[in-house]
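Figure caption, in words: inputs first, then the predicted bound structure.
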Amino acid sequence: MTEPYLEIDGIRREFGPVVAVEAVRLTIQRGEFMTFLGPSGSGKSTTLYILAGLDVPTAGDIRLEGRSLLSTPPQHRQIGMVFQRYTLFPHLTVAENVAFPLVVRRRPRAEIDAKVKAMLRLVRLEGFEDRKPAQMSGGQQQRVALARALVYDPPVLLMDEPLSALDKKLREEIQFEIRRIHQETGVTILYVTHDQEEALRLSDRIAVFSKGVIDQVGTGEELYAHPTTRFVAGFIGDSDFLTATVTAAEKGRADLKLGDDVIVRGVPIHGDPGRPGAKASLMLRPERIDVATAPSSAVDGDRAALPATVEDITFLGASIHLAARTAWGEAVAVRLPYGHPAAAGLARGQSIGLGFEPAAAHCFL
Amino acid sequence: MAGVTRQAAAIGGGTGLAPGRPRRLPAGPFALVVPGLLLLVVFFALPVLALLLRSVTEPEPGFANYAALIGSGTYLKIFFNTFLVSAVVTLVSLAIGFPVAWTLAILPQGVAAPIFGVLILSMWTNLLTRTYAWMVLLQRTGVINKSLIGLGLIDAPLPMVNNLTGVTIGMTYIMLPFVVLPLYGVIRRIDPAILQAAALCGASRFQALRLVLLPLVAPGMAAGALMVFVMSLGYFVTPALLGGTANMMLAELIAQFVQSLVNWGMGGAAALVLLVVTLALYALQLRLFGTAGLGGR
Ligand SMILES: Nc1ncnc2c1ncn2[C@@H]1O[C@H](COP(=O)(O)OP(=O)(O)OP(=O)(O)O)[C@@H](O)[C@H]1O
Ligand SMILES: [Mg+2]
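Bound structure (magnesium ion present):
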């Protein structure tokens, strides 16, 4: 771990009775690509606006290399930002837009021209210098906005859902560009999105926002493999949740009872179950469930198995999607890779066993 | 603004208007314009043309009327007064109107609406009433002079009626809504995020004002300024009541030629000068800003 670069220290933001950000705490390393991922209204933009200086926290502090930023107005923070909406200056050309941060800093003309040229090359918009924003597509406008935000070499770049107005193909293309620019410039990026795929594709680490707090921070893989809250488990990747009762728990592992008589032992548990009998949910990843054609609830070695019936089978190319229902009536989605031997003989209404490894499952209270 | 236009275009193009749909409006609606146009031609264009004709035919054919108008110091002074007052009224209206429009644009609707109500109501109040009200306020024994003397700020009452100061004050008041409304329109159309972007680009407040805000509101300013200047050039009531006979403006001169002196030739010549100046200013505005800010797109 290197020393903290950008620190968000317990910020809170209230809008009258609404608490938009409750207590956000986060440390970002220099050069890191950090993504804020979370549902609508979870406080991502508010946190970003506070970092930019466009909003002021009710409580808490933000520090860049140890110095508080709160008393610095936005024009002096040296933080670049790309907004969700197109915010190019409509009366200026592309080149003038990109030059703007340098013009207000009174840089010499030759330097401005050289940097604008280099930035437009970086975002692959050479030849568009004299266009007005209204003559550009949304994706091109956002690339100009990116160039404008980066032209004066800000150490930190904020992006608030910059691609959400674009179609999928264009979005992926610009995601790739952003990734490349991040690597080439080494700028520290804070990126907001509610698209988990985008977050996974771009980020070094992801902070998952939920109702004004960060539920969990980690690499995409960490969040996927080791979610610490039910919310994170449900938000990153696909997941099945089953109702369970905790029968015993110690050292972070729990024994669970599902339905009337199925016992699953040794599931990692998050939170304190208190005394046995607590209600909990068991989380499984659809692609980590195995299908046995004989119904069984027997524990086979390290694996657990749930008796179920096939309700529907959907062929999705690379995978086969199975809608199953447990013997006690809960829906479970299963994804089998194409060509999996178990998929071959399945039919609707058939009784099956859903096998999984308890150690790879999660139990949330 | 441009963004909006572009979006509209994108929506129009994207949803793909039905292939057979004509691009131009059908001829039908044009017929609806004909009665209005006819009315304008018969009751406005023709009389104006007749008046202008009389300016070169009465009392005898030629440009004698114009020569008289330009050759006389008295008349030139009236032209000078008219342009001076109109220019000052325009500048002061802009200077007061801009902060007013800005404040109205950023206030919550609930607060801005009543202020607008007052603004519009003042426009609907009888012009004579409002001008007489200013007379009461501005005269030697009026509220303003009495207060200033009472506060000990001045010894003798300031002369504010029967001179151009009074005219300028009274007209600025009347013209204010005509700059506030178009300015409010353009300011409301500016996305606040654009100004935030300017700040994040490192622009100081003043730089953001000069490099972003002013260029974006320029069409509204030009529209308001044109409206006020042109209306001021031809204004009659306020100069007549607050200016006194010694400080005549062009409209009063025209009225005097036509009504008191029954000199249609001179009246027509003065009117033509006014018309030409007005049209020239309008052409300039169109050239610089197109129809943007005049309510068109
Ligand atoms: N100016 C404001 N006044 C009142 N409430 C606000 C204001 N700005 C944000 N909020 C509220 O604060 C909460 C968090 O808003 P925020 O914009 O940060 O969410 P977000 O995570 O960015 O969501 P989205 O993904 O929809 O952009 C929301 O409930 C929102 O309604
Ligand atoms: Mg947001």
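Chain A has two domains: 6-234, 238-364.
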